[in-house]
Amino acid sequence: MPLIALNNLEKVLGDRLMFDKLAFAIEKGERVGLIGNNGEGKTTLFKMMIGEMTPDVGEVMIPRGTKIGYLKQDVELDPTNTVIDEAELAFAELHQIAHDMRDLEHKMAEPDVDLEKVLAKYETLQHDFEDKGGYAFRHKLEATLLGVGLPESMWETNVEKLSGGQRSRLALAKILISEPELLLLDEPTNHLDLVAIEWLEDYLLAFNGAVLVISHDRYMLDRVCNKIAWLTNRKIKTYPGNFTKFLELKELEELSQARAHDLQQKDIAKQEEFIRRFGAGQRAREAQGRLKKLERFKKSDAIVGAVDSTKSMSVKFNNNARAGDQLLRVEGLAKSFGGLKVWSDITFNVKPGERIGIIGPNGSGKTTLLKSLLGEMPVDGGEVRWGTNLDIGYYDQRLDEFDPENTILEECHDGMTPERKVRDVLGSLLFTGDTVDYKRMGDLSGGERARVALAQLMLEKPNVILLDEPTNHLDVQSAAALENTLTNFDGTLLIVSHDRYFLSQIVTRLIVLEPGGMIDFEGSFDEWQRKTHAASLAPSPQANKPQQAKTQAKPAQQPAKSKAKSDAGKDNPYARKFGRHSVKDLEKQIAETEKQIAEAQTSLSRATRDANKSKSLNATISMLSATLKELEAEYFLREA
Predict the structure, then answer these.
(1) CA end-to-end span of the chain
(2) What three-state secondary structure class fits 272?
(3) C-alpha 601: how far from chain center
(4) Among 117-126, 135-144, 157-166, 200-209, where is mean pLDDT lowest?
(5) Which residues, 6 or more positions from 540, have their beta carbon under 8 angstroms from its beta carbon?
(6) Is residue 7 packed enough to be buried (19+ CB in 10 Å), middle (13-18) or exposed (0-12)?
(7) Which residue has the higher pLDDT, 111 or 565?
């Protein structure tokens, strides 16, 4: 029985039909990616599933007692709570007991307290807490908070003092802690750094319930999802497998549809030609018969529609000026907030035409670095030296540097660029008709504001562009259009992003910010991922140290033998599982293993009703994943 089923939903918002006889269901164990262009109604669909909105026609069916967890884009938390108290609300009863225990702990430290009485109350609460599984709950709560990037040092901080990103992570933690049977996640990666995103993906892969996630993160859609639901033309079409598989199936489907449509249109044209030629002659009766038959056919379900050619935005950055040979020099940059050091001794050079990604955990100062380079934020030390003949453009992820009362056209028209040119640029970003004349900035969605910001950049014609999380508010199709543009941009790019697919397509060098410093990595994002992954698999120096003997019975020389054996294994390739393989063979095996994993994942998505087959496929995927890790570790050992 499905965890949720949508039957023939219809919904009108304003004068627009959002859903038309929409049908969709989710079974336990499915991890579904809900995709579609901005404005198609993905979030509206979520609101119907949890009862915040009701359909005009049709029904949402959920079995009694099914627990649903819903992560909104705009989270709602109690600002007076501490982080730990807010997280504990996921278990209201246990939260109250834990809260009362903490109060008693504080009382114990007060002077003139009846310690015996307080301890008796504390022991009663502690026993009740234990009986209800409180200590296991507490461990899970703490692990989840750490996983989403909220360290222990923040747990006693009031929610009102958290940033927007930190609040989003706390809301996500609350939902995960409560262990619902169905998770509805609306853009869950928007405020997570790369480490937290990977943690979330691992969590979802191990989750026993069902997941429906709205996301533009194509890495997540590929790694986590075993089914894709595409919201298009007011209906949902489903495809087995991950996002990459969806693209393949969709391409084949559209090719087949286009051929069938062409053949059908040719046949219709022949019938119409016959009717035209013989409608008034001796064969008029036959022509009239064919006409009636053709009219019935055109109104039937047998008619094959043309492939939907939904227009995507077109972004194009032109620049008139060529930058000088020395574009940017950064020396010894340091920045602190209060007593907290963000980074020190940030030093790097940028040459014309480079495409550099800036990555690092939340709080490492990525946006701060961009603003420091632009001179919008003072630094504590160091120097930023820009070259000559530069037109620098900046995309701010906050998207709040707008006058809310301006129309779209007013916001983009600087009074110097011809109005026709401004309208053309806005049209290429899907602002059509008279929308640009009457729609005000304060009424735009996040995705629409993002497109206005891109329009302003296009009109500025920069030869250096600094981008801060440019894909956060873009749908998958729009993000792909931006990628295509930036790939062909002949200027210089510095990009802060946690969108792994976007980074893998664009950047050729990385500035990796770490606590207090940085790593300058010459290579692509995929190369960095493989390098760090291999490093995480390699044994640590501590792991290679012999353990201290626990009894006197062990020979004194045994530790030295263990170390010698460990060193020999490292230096002798024949002692390693894949040590005999050439680099070329390793590359071939890595590619083949990745293909086998993808095929097994696709098979798994189709075997949701067969428990034995699902178990076997899961075991195969685990085995292949372990082999892939070993192959990659060997590959990077050669590179090192």
Answers:
(1) 52
(2) helix
(3) 20
(4) 135-144
(5) none
(6) middle
(7) 111
Residue 295 phi, psi (nearest 5): -65, -40
Distance between CA 3 and CA 553 in Å, rounded?
60
Tokens standing for residue 114: 């009846």
CA–CA distances in Å: residue 110 to residues 58, 107, 118, 120: 61, 5, 11, 16
The C-alpha atoms of residue 285 and residue 275 are separated, in whole angstroms, by 10
| pLDDT, tens only, 7-20 | 999 999 988 899 99
Pair 334, 379: CB distance under 8 Å: yes
Q: What is the pLDDT of residue 579?
A: 64
Two structure tokens written together for 520: 């300058």
| Res. 108 pLDDT band, cuts 50 70 90 | confident
Residue at 424: amino acid letter: D
The SS3 assignment for 394 reads strand
Q: How many CB atoms lie within 10 A of CB 257?
A: 15
Report CA dihedral (546, 550, 552, 556) to the nearest 10 degrees. Answer: 0
What the block records as the tokens of 450 is 């993002």
**Distance of CA 258 to CAs 205, 305, 585, Å?**
36, 8, 41
Taking a C-beta distance cutoff of 8 angstroms, is the pair 183, 211 a contact?
A: yes
Closest CA to 234 of 17, 13, 478: 17
98 versus 570: the higher-pLDDT residue is 98
Residue 125: name the closest of 105, 143, 153 by CA. 105
pLDDT at 101: 87
- Nearest one of 244, 218, 229, 308 to 36, comparing CA atoms: 229
> Which residues, 6 or more positions from 336, have their beta carbon under 8 angstroms from its beta carbon?
342, 380
Q: How far is 172 from 144, CA to CA, in rounded Å?
A: 9
Locate all alpha helices (DSSP H) within 109-186, ordered by sequence. Answer: 115-131, 134-147, 164-177
CA distances from 24 to 59, 174, 221, 273, 388 (A): 11, 27, 19, 42, 57
For 31, the 3-state DSSP assignment is strand
* CB within 8 Å of 621: residues ≥ 6 apart: 597, 600, 601, 604
- CB distance 223 to 242 below 8 Å: yes
Mean pLDDT on 477-498: 88
Side-chain-facing half-sphere of 129: CA atoms under 13 Å? 20
pTM here?
Answer: 0.70
Distance CA 430, CA 187 (A): 22
For 16, the token pair is 């627009």
Q: Name, of 189-203, 262-276, 553-567, the range with top average pLDDT.
A: 262-276
Six-digit token pair at 80? 């007076």
pLDDT for 429 beyond 90? no
Contact criterion met (CB below 8 Å) for 495 and 506:
yes
